[in-house]
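Figure caption, in words: inputs first, then the predicted bound structure.
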Amino acid sequence: MNLSDINELKKLLDTSGFSFKKSLGQNFIIDGSVCPKMAELSCDENTGVIEIGPGVGVLTRELAKRAKRVVAIEIDERLKPILSKTLEDFNNIEVVFGDVMKLDLKKMIAEKFTDCKKVCVCANLPYYITSPIIMMLLESKLNIDSITAMVQAEAAERLCAKVGSRQAGAVTVAVDYYSSANILFDVKRECFLPSPKVDSAVIKLEIRQNPPINVNDEKTFFKVVKACFAQRRKTLLNTVSNTLSIDKDVLRKILEEIDLEPTVRGEQLNITQLALLSDKIYTSTFKPQPA
Ligand code: SAM
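Bound structure (S-adenosylmethionine present):
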């Protein structure tokens, strides 16, 4: 069965009475070159792969040809009969039906990939929930090597931007903290059924063993980062003091101590400066003081 052939795919969907649900970000790949390339760049014969959202299984099959084992997590149970047909030739695929945001992925990795040397995530992500899924995967500190994901082109630019550049946002800093991120290749909107309104790109996040900077308190670091990007047009002094309820004079002094002008904007800081700022804020205002 050639799932990249639009006519074969339409026939399969029609005979199963399947209709696309926009609310689940269901845009299936119909270009024959995309999935082999994605699979090739994400795994090898020693890898266990978690796929999020297999759809009809077009990427799942390419992953299973190259990886040791694939566990595919799909929220839409209507795809059950289709997947049991399209994946029937493979004995190294398991489909788990559920919401990836609610499953215990740590447990899944520990239980299902005992015979794999490494584990990675590969997915054509549902666009309505791209950043939350990526943040959940990173923040859960899963035992994975990399995340290869198809996302909207604009999201790819943001996720892989250089911290300190105009394209960067709070999510860029988080991605950079946990991983080294790159755009692998672009994918045109015509490569999907139904065709979305925007183009896409495949990105790869290689998970870091250690973060690029050390901070006194991770929670404070991410709070400060969020505050820095909360109101992009305002100065860092205004947005951080408003968002975190820090006295402006205290914050002005902190900025002076780390050689930053009070007129600087959050998006202009590199990750080392963000770490310094967070540490200073932590020790001067957040850290519990000894009684
Ligand atoms: N992998 C297929 C492909 O490339 O053609 C389908 C990709 S489609 C963009 C996204 C898939 O994710 C859909 O099958 C959708 O049902 C599924 N999905 C959406 N939200 C999900 C969630 N929270 N957990 C697991 N799967 C989800």
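The chain has a mean pLDDT of 95.
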